[in-house]
Amino acid sequence: MTPALFFFRDPKTVIKRTANSAYPKVISNLGALMDTADGRVAVNMIRFMNHYARSVQERLYIIQFFKDNSYIEPRRFVYDRDTDSYEAEEVKGAEAFKEWPDGRGINTAPFMSMMNDYFAVGFANTIGYAHANTGDTMTSVMIGGLRTVMNGDFEIFPGDLVQFYWYAAPLCRAPPAPSRLQCLFPRRSFEKDDFLPNGRRKPYINIWDGNTPCNVDPSVTFDAATGVRGKKRDADGREVWPLRPDAATRGAHYNLSYGQKPDKQKIVAKIKPYFRDEQNPRLMDWFRVFGVAIASARPNEMCDIKISRQSM
I want to staple 215 with a disulfide (CB 3.0 to 4.6 A). Which of 37, 72, 242, 260 is the partner? Predict the structure, then answer.
């Protein structure tokens, strides 16, 4: 079973009013978001917000950046001791959003109506279908108590706060390898590579030019001593790190157990430990905390957690 999420739409977004319902709407995945150029824009919008928003105000600045839909060169601002100020430094090939042809800018504006804030409410106990033509749309969700669940890509220990993160790649039309097992290891992860292997966020990069965030991908890192950018990158230029073979095998087995298919990978929520960053607190990570780990677990092992959004 995967975490069930309640979604909250930006109140400034105008939507068609639907009939009132006695049951709140919950989801367990991001539907048919596909591994296409358009799909990767939507994925990167979620990644960008989750990594760079440190406050409600910065969240609003990032939303405005998406609405403006204008390409900005990827830059970071580095403190210069000699001038006692921050100097802009271009980061070539590190943009989160590329410039599209035909005057479409970075193509983020068309996806604004899809951007929601998601909050974990628990774990699904039963199957619920998206439409009544497919099956029963009602599902039961465990919103509190002890539960054994599948851990994500990061080791977890007793007492760790538990948050959810988006796992796996968007749907892949062409499997990356002929082996069914290998196909279940996505070419592009969703959020995994925005964290370090120990589960902490990658070091925060100062991308703020006043109220405008510069266009730097969340996976980018720099060596603290030399200032050189990390070199292990995928075909899109994102900095990546591999899972251990045993963890990758357990992850593939879990994917098969709930019906993930090589050519139809759903983006689902999985758990990871939450680490507080005192200097650069990530607003969206804190919103996604919903429990406490009761037992330790390696990546993609079963783990006991206490689900509780009211008191921890």
Answer: 72
What type of residue sits at position 260?
A: Q
**Burial tier of 199 (Cβ tally within 10 Å: 0-12, 13-18, 19+):** buried
Cβ atoms within 10 Å of 251's Cβ, excluding its own: 24
Give the distance from CA 11 to its chain's centroid.
Answer: 22
> Phi/psi at 162 (nearest 5 deg)?
-115, 130
Residue 72: count other Cβ atoms within 10 Å of its Cβ.
Answer: 19
Q: How far apart are CA 127 and CA 142, in angstroms?
A: 13
Q: Give the domain ranges of the chain.
A: 3-36+110-202+218-307
Distance CA 186, CA 224 (A): 30
Task: Report how far residue 258's alpha carbon sits from residue 150's, in angstroms, rounded to the nearest whole number.
Answer: 12
| Rounded CA separation 158/131 (Å) | 39
Instruction: Tell me how crowded residue 62 is: count the other CB atoms within 10 A of its CB.
Output: 18
* Averages of pLDDT over each 10 residues, the chain, 312 residues: 61 51 77 75 92 94 93 90 85 89 88 85 83 82 90 94 81 45 52 92 92 92 79 74 83 71 74 93 93 94 87 52
Predicted TM-score of the model (pTM):
0.85
